[in-house]
Amino acid sequence: MEILKIIPDISVERDSSVELAIQKITEFHGRYAPGVVIAAYMVDLALELLPVQNEKLNAIAESRVCLADAIQVMTGCTLGNKYLHVKDYGRYALCVYGRDSKQGIRISVDLNKIDPQKTPILKQFFEGSRTYESVPRHIQQGIVTQEFLSVKRNILRAESVLVNLPAKPPLYSLEKCLHCGEFFRPNPTLPQCLCQTEPLLYS
């Protein structure tokens, strides 16, 4: 991995494009959230720095939060088409990379770049240390967004990476469960039908 220099300034045209993306992500996500705004700027930076511009893309989200929705809206890599890999590492980071070359850009939030004096609520947001006794959560969400928009790319970290993942997960053959009668796809992590290995989802 190679750490890349980030140009903090963003053009008016590109900023307007990100704002439009935020509107679309918000509709898809179901509500306006700080994570949506931050994720949109992260995806945009990854796309700008991507060394392969004419290649089909894959993406990785390293947590199960707003990142995945921003990636799906802005890149076309989705859970449904299997070009988005969600790795629940609990890290606010993502990667966009060329499907064939595997060359990509990983973007993360660098906590060391967040000034606790200038953007205290943003710092608490990423540290998970916010409390809501004096300021309600919905008010703090707005503050987090405002503080991020005052720094934008300045708190992000960009790395040039080579991804070690297949373009798509393998598609296994269908089998009929002898117990429940439904068809399922056995795989190394799920060799048997869920009706035999997990508590029932429905009652």
The CATH class of the largest domain, by name, is Alpha Beta
Main sheet: strands, sense, barrel: 6 strands, mixed
Q: Quickly give the CATH architecture of the largest domain.
A: 2-Layer Sandwich
Distance between the termini: 48 Å
Point out poorly predicted stretches. Answer: none
Strand content: 15-25%
String of helices and strands: EHHEHEEEHHEEEH
Percent range of helical residues: 25-40%
Q: Report the count of strand segments.
A: 8
CATH topology of the largest domain: 60s Ribosomal Protein L30, Chain: A
SSE class = alpha+beta
Rg on CA atoms, Å: 20 Å
* Neighbour order of strands in the largest sheet: 1-6-5-4-2-3
Number of domains: 2
The whole-number mean of residue pLDDT values reads 91
Shape: globular
Tally of individual helices: 6
Account of the protein in words:
With 203 residues, the protein is α+β, with helices and mostly antiparallel strands. It has helices at residues 12-29, 34-49, 66-75, 120-127, 137-149, 194-197; strands at residues 2-4, 57-61, 84-86, 93-98, 103-109, 156-162, 175-176, 183-184. The mean pLDDT is 91. The N and C termini lie far apart (48 Å). The protein has two domains: 2-168, 60s Ribosomal Protein L30, Chain: A; 170-203, no CATH class. Helix 1 (12-29) crosses helix 2, helix 1 packs across helix 3 and helix 2 (34-49) packs parallel to helix 5. Strand 7 and strand 8 (183-184) form a beta hairpin. Helix content is 34%, strand content 17%. The strands form two sheets. The chain has a six-stranded mixed sheet with strand order 1-6-5-4-2-3, covered by helices on one side.
